[in-house]
Amino acid sequence: MQSLRRPEPRPSDRRRSEPVSAARPHIALRAGASGPALPRRTVAEIPVIAHRGASEDVPEHTLAAYEAALLQGADGVECDVRLTADMQLVCVHDRRVNRTSDGRGVVSTLELAQLRQLDFGSWKQRPGDEEFAEYPDLRREGAHRVLTLERLLELVTGHPNRVEMAIETKHPTRYAGLVEEHLVALLDRFGLAHPRLGERSPVRVMSFSAMSVRRIRRLAPSLDTVLLLDRVPLRLRDGSLPRGVRIAGPGIHILRIHPEYVERVHSMGNRVHVWTVDQPSDIDLCVELGVDAIISNRPKAVLARLGRDGAAPAATARHGVIELNPDSP
Ligand code: G3P
Ligand code: CA
């Protein structure tokens, strides 16, 4: 993105050893083409979202990984979803199960009962590994089996605090739009797909596929959607987003090179949720730029860096829909 200008000084000039805990003053932003200017969040208000659960500590996308994330104090969780051969939504990142289980095969060709035979935990453990010692109950049977989205929704909605959910649809897949149809139907069963006017669901749907995001907007118009970006296409370099989408989801690699992208998105009245932010310098960069959510494999480390160890969650309402905050999404 040659046309984007880099602001001075660089956020990376910040002293690396210090947690970034001081609240920043709200900065008024100019009104943009897609909506009114939104105030920046303070450091304490930046939600920390556990990417695939607390996936650095515990095998990704297992119930154990999400329980660990909530124990660590994450404000929300991220998951990838795919449809099985019998139309069940499961939380698996890769098209195949080979990397994260002791089985082989393509998720979309396997039935849920077949996936349930597999162990999605042992691939991350090495003999004598004590990495789960901090969470002894996470070793119980079932905690390392394939996780259905339904089970994850039960966990999240049963939590005493409001927990945000960033659900990513994975495309391409042979089931195309059936993914979004099953997803919205499942969210509906939990009362999360159609928040009333003035309320916001804790769930948002993300995708690299603009088509998937459009389908969600058609099926559940009041649900927040995030367009994930591996690179910023020319037409979106002014900070605009496709119609109806209010959140950009750039990879941290984009902001390292083009930090000014955050201000451009904000100037259009849109928000920025960044993945996957694990390094201290990247966390500092996100804070300095005023991003609106940090998605990390290391939620505990991010919370500590933000000075929030043991502190109140960024969102304190009970689970379920909340009244719309003018500072949201
Ligand atoms: O949170 C978005 C991020 O998860 C996208 O990349 O490959 O980890 O799903 P990936
Ligand atoms: Ca993902």
Please explain how this structure is put together.
The chain is built from 9 helices and 11 strands. Helices cover 23% and strands 14% of the residues. The model is unreliable at 2-32 and 315-320 (pLDDT under 50). The protein is an alpha/beta fold and 329 residues long. The protein has an 8-stranded parallel β-barrel, surrounded by 5 helices. A two-stranded antiparallel sheet has the order 5-11.
Spell out the helices and strands N to C: EHEEHHEHEEHEEHHEHEHE
Low-confidence stretches: 2-32, 315-320
Q: How many domains?
A: 1
Q: Tally the helices: what do you get? A: 9
Give the strand order of the largest sheet, numbering strands 1, 2, ... along the chain. Answer: 1-2-4-6-7-8-9-10
Number of strands: 11
CATH domain class name: Alpha Beta
Q: What summary fits the major beta sheet?
A: 8 strands, parallel, barrel
Compute the CA-based radius of gyration: 19 Å
Structure class: alpha/beta
**Intertermini distance:** 26 Å
CATH superfamily (homologous) name: Phosphatidylinositol (PI) phosphodiesterase
Distinct small-molecule ligands in the complex: SN-glycerol-3-phosphate, calcium ion
Tell me the helix content: 10-25%
Oligomer: single chain
Strand content: 5-15%
Q: What is the residue-mean pLDDT, rounded to a whole number?
A: 85
Overall shape: it is globular
CATH topology: TIM Barrel
Name given to the CATH architecture? Alpha-Beta Barrel
